[in-house]
Amino acid sequence: MARVNNWQLGREMSYWYPESRPEKQFAAVFDINKCIACQTCTLACKTTWTSGKGQEYMLWNNVETKPYGFYPLSWDLKLLEMLDGQQWSPDGSTYEGSTIFESAPAGERVLGWRPEDEDYAYPNVGEDDCAGQIDGGASLQMPHMAWFYYLARICNHCTYPACLAACPRGSIYKRPEDGIVLVDQGRCRGYQECVRGCPYKKVFFNPMTGTSEKCIACFPKIEQGLQPQCFVNCIGKIRLAGWISKPGEEREDNPIDYLVRIRKIALPLFPQFGLEPNVYYIPPIHVPTSFTRQMFGPGVDDAIAAYKKAAAEGDDDLTGLLGLFGSTEEVLSRWNRSGETITGFNDKGEEAVRVPLREPVSIRPSYDKLYQITRVNCP
Amino acid sequence: MRKASIIFAALALAAAFAASGCRGRTVSPSEVVAVPEQEITLDPLDDAWYPLPYHPAKLILQDLVEPRLMEPSTAEVEVTAMTDGKDVAFRLEWIDGSQNDLPGPQAFIDGCAIQLPSKQDANVPAPQMGEEGKSVEIAYWRADWQAIVDGRADEISSIYPNAAVDHYPFKAESLQKDPKKQQEMARRYAPARALGNDRSGPRKQPVEDMVAGGPGTLSPASPVSSGKGVRTDKGWSVVIVRPLPAFLTDKQSANIAFAIWQGENNETGARKMRTGWIPLVIRRLPE
Ligand code: SF4
Ligand code: SF4
Description:
heterodimer; A: Alpha-Beta Plaits; globular; B: alpha+beta; Immunoglobulin-like; 4 helices
């Protein structure tokens, strides 16, 4: 095992291979607060990539309703139970527990487990149903008596992929040009070690070809400077794809750097696993942070506070940047704000899109004086 | 007096079993003997195997690389061999209480493999899949490939009989009249097949030929071997036929090693039971 730097843990950790960061690292920010679980992303991916024989059950992109939804069943709970002591230092700067690499049992490369086929049989069906007893006369109050949120998930194209570390054949590789993690379909022999190793359960075994397959970050699109299918088809405009800089090289004008490293409002999923995952989440604001702290790390409270303040207190940079989500198919590697206008630039440095700080809003009165009728919202 | 006669009866019974039940099978305790025959057989149940001496090869854990098994499983594989001077056939028989030939997530497949050094050298390669510059040739049989060769359809319903499929793009009506285009489309949605990955099927042979120069380096070799496996009441009986290596003659012995995977025990890849090198000789049966 080598010693590598994991900025999400604030410390070095053990990994199967030495640190070798790609030239550019594909990264994304998902704003959980905007997700409506319409599953359009899931279908965009499904119809693009996994309509073949043996791929029937695969959802490279899935949206699950937390806390009761999983795909596959209990993917996070199982590992959380296996991983001892996940404590952070009191100031939240350093992870003091051990990662899945550091707690690999004898004979294994990583701490992991493998779902059975039935565990894939419950992709978000019924998890939105209220799990508790509702007393007579109950009504919705704020803050919620009961809570849930939608968690959209793809492969995290981790800096330290467990799938890659777990493969004894070296069939998984991380592309040096963009950090996208791929299973070499010509080399894979279907040992399912990656399925076992990936804590996010984002590698799937194809029983018809006998190889393992996973999200490819839509690399043919990325190579053309375009955002992946599940990003551009997102109805809620919750997603933004881009590049995250190497630790210490972050730039204010890089949208991902700004949200993740500078403003720290977007957080990694289960950083304590130790993979340095590169999909970052703006945590849900109406959920007890005792829950989300375990899922997104100790930065949750600060992230929520900054996010809430952005609109309320005229934080125009942050508010403006959030407006670039879902505004263009192009990958934005740079942005700026000039007054009320936010501009996004593509990889070539050309202007790709321009959005207003605030969309114009007009509210129709419910009573139409001209026709003397009350307007209703249904057709 | 009574005691003595009971012992005598037991001995007589044992002798009778040895003669009939085991049909006079002889053990070759320290080497695998390939017996010259006019013709070799691919059928593990062929009577031609029974007069031949078998070698009970002890299996040990693969313990060189992670991931690995921590507890031993299959203890032994019985190996019988014959050659027609051109090819050599090995029959491997081992005890395996469960038949695992349906692939799936967390579903692993019974299998076995034979391994020979690529060339004869006094300095033999490591038995754990060879070494850099000292490669080994491997022929690998799998129960799911056998099932496909025996007629299992290349459809998801073969694995999940109640699978519901809305639509496959290659089943689109517009492609129905053009089988070539249809196949092309099907391959597009089976990336491993599109890349010509040998193991991705649908297999025409239950045996795959490979070459390795150390753990993790297993690569496809040109297909020269064939095989057939059948389920017995105790486990598996599998014949693997490969070309007789030029360096193996009736005057010159070689080395061979074996590996067994028990699907039920989630054995796959490096998680396996294996042997060390075992001498392999060509020798006629005594007249
Ligand atoms: S999320 Fe899983 S599959 Fe994706 S790179 Fe990380 S370990 Fe690999
Ligand atoms: S990035 Fe592309 S391959 Fe990955 S989940 Fe989204 S649509 Fe699917």
